[in-house]
Structures are given as C-alpha cells and as structure tokens.
What does this fold into?
Amino acid sequence: MALARPIGILLAKELRTEFRTRELLVSTLVFVLIVLVLFSFTFDPTTVESRRFGPGLLWLALLFAGSLMLHPSFTREQSNDTLVALRMAPIEPVSIIAAKILANFCFLLVAELVLLPVFAALYNLRILPVLGRLVAVLILGTLALSIVGTVFAAISSQARMRELLLPLLLLPLLTPALVASAEATAGLFEDPPALGAVWVGVLAAFDTIFLTVTWLFGEYLLEE
Amino acid sequence: MQADSFTPAPTKSARVGDPASHSRGGLGVEFVEFAKRYGARFALRGVSLSIAPGECVALVGPNGSGKTTLLKAAALLIRPTSGRVQFSGAGANGAAASNGGDSAAIKRYIGFVSHSILLYDDLTAEENLVLFARLYGLDSPEDRARAALDPAGLAARGNDLVRNFSRGMRQRLAIARALLAGPKLLLLDEPSTGLDRAGQQWLGAALANLAAAGCTVLMSTHGAGEASACVTRAIRLVGGTVAEDSALSGDARAMLAAALAAHREA
It folds into this structure.
C-alpha cells in the first residue's frame, strides 16, 4: 500500500524521538498517577464506590492527560518548521496525520498499561479476570482519544491561545467516547462482569466515523 | 499536472552536489498571475514569471517584498489567492498541488532551503537525512545520508544530535537535506545565512555543480557571494510585484551588486 510505507517511516521517527526525550510519556504517566492517587486519598472510596466511580475517573484522567499530551505532537514540529519538510516530501499528506495518530495511540496505550496495576491497587479492583476485555475497551477508547485529539492538535497548533484551545475543542467532542468507555469499563467490574455490546458499538462507530473524516479531510489540516 | 515527462531520481551511487548525481535537465517553473493574500495584505500581487529549466535566478528585494512567498509557491506549500504555478508546461494550481497524489510527482524533484532548517533537533544529523531519504524513496538511505554529510563537512558529526549543532552546521545540514534527492528545481531562501566563508564557498561550488548539471535554481538573496557562483538572471521584487527583471532589461550582476549595497545600507 502506498500509504503504509510513509506511515511506517514517520511512526518510527515519532517513536524514536519520544523514547529519546520521554517528554510526553513521562508527563502523561505522572499526571494520571497524581489524579488517581489524589482522588483515592481524598474520597477514600469503598469497594462499591470504586466499582461505580473508578472507571469514570480513570477515563477522565486519561482524557485530561491526553489533552495535555497531544498538544505538543504538532507544536514541536514548529520549532524548525519540520512540518514544511514533511509536506514537501512526495507522500500523501494524510500519512503525516495517520503516523501522528498511531504514535499518540501507542504513547497513550503504553501509559495506560503502566497505570492499570496502580489503578487496580488504589481502587481495590480485580483486573486480571477481565484483562482481555479491558484491554479491548482501552484500545477502542484510546483510539477515539488519539484520532480526535491529534486532529484538533493540528488545528489548534496554528492558533493563538492554543494551549487552552485544544481542551476546549476536545472535551465536548469526546464526550460520547468518554461516556461509552467509562460505561464499558464499569460493566467489567460489576458482579458478574459484563462487556456492554452497546457501548463497544458506540466506541467502534465513533472511531470509524472520525477515522473516515480524517482520511477524507486530513490533508487540509496541514496547510498554512 | 503530469509527471510522466520526468526522469527517475538518481540512484544510490550518486553524490550530493556532484553533477553526475543529477539527471540532466531542470524543472521549469512558471507563475501565471499568481497572487497570495494573508488577511488584508497581499504578499504577491499577480506575479507572472517564467523560469526556464536550467536557469539560475536570484530573487532580490527588500524585506517583505514577497521573495519567501514566491519560493513557497514554487515549493507547492501555499495555495494561491488567484493565479497558478505550473511546471515544465504541466499545469498545477494550488488546489491540485495540495492533493498529494497529483503533486507528489513534482515534489520529488524540488529541493527547498528555508529560513528554518526543516530538521529535527532530537534526531542526529544522519538520522535526519536517512528519514528524508526514506520518505523520498531513495535506494540505500544510509549510504545516501553518509554521502550527503561528507561534502557538507559534517561526516564526523553524523551521530550528533542536531540540537547540539552550531548555526552554521545546521545550515550546512539543511542544504545537504535539500540536495539529498537530486533536485531538478532547487529553491533557496537566503541560503548563506549563518555560513562561514568556507561554508559559503562550499555552497557556491555546490550551486555551480547543480547549474552545470542543468538544475533550475531559484534563490532569494541580499546579493551575497553564493549567488554569483551560478546566477544567470536576477529579479527584483518590490511590494509583491516584479519591479525589475534582468531577462528583460539590465544586467543580473549589476542588480545583485545594487541589492547588496542596499542591504548594507539597511
């Protein structure tokens, strides 16, 4: 596929840069950890309350962390105008966006996999019996966050007040994905655990719609 | 836009700045009533220019005269407010150019040195060049990157992060990146910025080699020495319009000298 090669090259560049600097990954991990620990210490939830509120809190923390973490994905292309160099390369412009989405998806997923045991310990939730289904929900929810977050990071990167603009654009638009992710996760901690097909369907539809829109209009995001 | 009239990019055996590394013949570029407006201000006002394949053209003029915008237009980085830019007779307006499928064939043959270095600070010099060699689909990207570092005088610093480079070294690497794929149209925006005398000599020699190979060169300059290495024509822009063109009247070197004098006074 003509797109797969440039996406692979650019994804490798994103991963190499991030794992060399660790700027995004470390800040995301620390932020989500602080939120989870503070909430746990402040409210000292019971097991029932943890089952009820824990998933929502986890996804809210990830959403806030994502809005912080996704912002530099385009702004750090601005210091040396490297986006211009990418736009000049003989590749489909949408491959630049796709590589950014995939890279942000990887960073968020790595952060989540590190945080999951901490979340389970702090909120006294058993994740091992539902690990496979939980990872599936995490993948769908994180993909939603990565797609919309990357697109709006591209849009807001050229605006004034961009640090404020990204969360303002992102949070309302991601509400359906946030609700679906939290509900699907909460179902996994009920007794007996159940993966809500409706919520998984909502997440899959959300991902498909925004991926398609990005595919169709992604190139316009990169223009001056 | 048609790409079938172009010959393939050079192979792995080619060396940067070496005439043998470039396919014979450059890419001509024509601006047809090209206008670009940013907000209420026109950066270019209906510029019509034809630059033939193999010409080495110096763009001179005061700050804000539209030199950078003209280079960006030739690099297919901006959409025109009106008018179009076309290559070697094959038309490509801004809208078509931004559709990667159409413009990719043209972009493959365009090298661009911008005000910014267009390189990643957190990658090494060699990693940067390998990245772009891969994106341009060149054979043996690692070999091509090393071959590009050598004439730029950066062979010993290939494994250093770009963020640790001096301004002059960064500029040398930016030029090496632009030459990496063997461009048929080289666009340079004040390329000697930050270069020491040796760097300027290297740039001058590289431009002379490219011109000898038939590469079209379009560069903005304040009249500094690198332009005299190959320049065959000078165009003076003022307020987004062509004020003077040595192809029609005057002498290119006299215009460059006047531009340099004006720059020194400023």
User: Anything to note?
Assistant: Chain B has two domains: 27-109+187-265, 122-182.
